[in-house]
Design a protein that fits this description.
By secondary structure, the chain is α/β, with parallel strands linked by helices. The chain folds into two domains: about 25-195, Acetylglutamate kinase-like (Carbamate kinase, 3-Layer(aba) Sandwich); about 200-290, Acetylglutamate kinase-like (Carbamate kinase, 3-Layer(aba) Sandwich). It is built from nine helices and 16 strands. Strands 5-8-2-1-11-14-15-13 form an eight-stranded mixed sheet, with helices on both faces. β9 (about 170) and β10 form a beta hairpin. α3 (about 65-75) crosses α4.
Amino acid sequence: MNRDWIATARTLSEALPYLQRYSGAIVVVKFGGNAMGDQDAMADFARDIVLMRQVGLNPVVVHGGGPMINDLLGRLGIESQWVRGKRVTDKATVEVVEMVLTGLVNKRIVQAIMDEGGRAVGLSGKDDDLMVCEPDDPELGFVGRPVEMNVQVLHDMFNAGIIPVIAPVATGMNDNETFNVNGDTAAGAIAGALKADRLLLLTDVSGVKNKDGEVITQMTPAEVREMIADGTIAGGMIPKTETALKAIEDGVRGVVILDGRVANACLLELFTEHGAGSMIRTTEPRVKPRNL
């Protein structure tokens, strides 16, 4: 018997319990990082999302687009201002952000999903008041923090067999305002409003690491807070884990931080025993390091 067939059968056998477990589940995926700029990686990601839908899950894609925003700002000669290492989003900048995220990045992802046989519709936080924001920090200008969510349109799309692809641009409490929302923050807010089964935050690292550099596969919120306090979790991983904690508080069953550069990362996380990143959830409190 062909060994490839045997390997395929074993893979399907391993995946079956997870396929049954996740039938009908809502999974929010934050897509960003270097994979967004790689055509092959984009196609692989789209293929994973389509497969998730075909086997009975309800995936939602939320994306960023920082490098493309920076590129267009530079070409337009718009100079960025910074406060405490964060970009100030003034009126001119937020207009560019909206153009890039909703008009370029969003449609590329939609097209990639369509090319793989899925049905996808792109929208932003402005559509049907999906996400309403207030200023996160007045010094940062039009950077928003979600305060009101209306996810009925997403449920309607699930029922129609459509994959939502969401750009993190939102309206303000004043309808004349537009806010740029951090992609992880937007994904967490949407996952929380949907009470999603999983929130997958794709990054350019393999997960949350302990002080020995080993990936931690399972953590509770309490353990995450301890690791932030003692400096084990530092730098850019702090806002990602804080997003995870807020999402869990809002009702998400589990949040996974994983490497989006790994082929089929989402499928490996959802449908295999070993997973693919760092899971944060209130159950299974044992912290498990894994050497990679």
